[in-house]
Amino acid sequence: MKNRARFTAHAASCYTSKFKQLNLTLLCAGLLGLPLMAQAEEITPINLRLATVVNTEDTYHIAAERFQQLVSEQTDGAVSVEIFPNASLGDERTILEGMQIGTVDMGVITNGPVANFVDEFSVFELPFLFPNAESAYAVLDGEIGQEILAKLEDVNLKGLAFAERGFRNITNSQHAINAPEDLDGLTLRVIENEVYVDTFRELGANAVPMAWTEALTALQQGTIDGQENPVNAIHAFNLAETQDYLTMTRHIYAPAIFIMSLPAWNGLQEEVQEIVLDAASEASAYAREQNAIMEAEQLAELAEAGMEINESPDIAAFQEAVAPVYEKYGDQFGDYLQRIQEEVK
Questions:
Q1: Residues 6+ positions from 156 with CB-CB distance below 8 Å
Q2: Global pTM?
């Protein structure tokens, strides 16, 4: 009986010790945020190929590098991002088509070419739609922008976040521009998007749609007189070398978009998808901040390089001249245009 009692006491002691150990394990797991039932899924190493058509001085590249850094940090280097600038994987349409079939993983792409794949993106291209950057951010990052971004999945693409190209302005090599009549007879490169083409034809210019890589050659050869782009692009591509005049029309706010191949997106682990989405959002916000910080300095450098800058053209005259564009396209976007105008107000 004494032996039996000693055995029972020993068993109870062991049980109590095990119970305390279990409680300690549970407590530590809870404090450290560790999974109790299973370890978190290990991230499988992967390399993502991100393409742009810009050089390494451009805001797109700044956004891409920030994205690259964030993804590497959040995955402890398991997910790497390889950046291909300078249109080394093709122009923006080619990059988008590559993403559709899975030969390119992702890119930072100007909104205009994206609108050729999903019509609703063209609503953002309407001239003088946004009075300032803050109103554009509110729409793009809000319900309207996210609805339109989600439509990319219908064409085998995944929209991640709206970055920024910025407010577009006119440059040319012939003479100063202050009002629409000053554009008469000028040949201007515009984005390959019908809204851009119609906008500048209403303004009196000979609007020629072409890829940016072709436009740079055309500007150097003098086969076109000018182009329109935000200050960051005008500065990054040293357009003061071929363009003598810059007019701050701020006629269109152009988003840029972090876009991923839908097949590539679907191939990511769920944890990595969340990291990629968050990193694209944060990198986009960072690019916007950098645009705002750098614009004054870039304008000063363009002026120093010899470019004549008109910072106060007759905006009311430009707005009046493009009214037919709204008449032509207003009904094309369902209720998106009305909703944007109401939110901007």
A1: 99, 100, 101, 261, 262, 263
A2: 0.82
pLDDT per residue over 16-69, tens digit each?
443 344 344 434 444 444 443 333 469 999 999 999 999 998 999 999 999 999
Those residues whose C-beta lies under 8 Å from the C-beta of residue 58, and which sit 6 or more positions away, are 52, 85, 232, 233, 236, 237
Residue with tokens 């521009």, as numbered in its chain: 177
Neighbours of 77 (CB within 10 A): 11
Number of alpha carbons in the 13 Å side-chain half-sphere of residue 134: 1
The backbone torsions φ and ψ at residue 51, rounded to the nearest 5 degrees and listed phi first, read -115, 145
- The amino acid that residue 201 corresponds to is R
Residue recorded with tokens 């053209």: 313
Tell me the backbone φ, ψ of residue 129, rounded to 5 degrees.
-75, -40
Place of tokens 């944007």: 340
Residue 334 pLDDT: 83
Distance between CA atoms of residues 222 and 219, nearest Å = 5
Q: What is the spatial distance between Cα 257 and Cα 286, in angstroms, rounded to a whole number?
A: 14
At a CB cut-off of 8 Å and minimum separation 6, what does 115 contact? 121, 122, 124, 125, 193, 195
What per-residue string of b and e applies to 133-146 under the rule 16 or more CB within 10 Å gives b? Answer: bebbbebbbeebbe
193 and 332 Cβ atoms separated by less than 8 Å: no
Q: Which two tokens stand for residue 27?
A: 């407590």
Half-sphere exposure of residue 238: CA atoms within 13 angstroms, side-chain side: 6
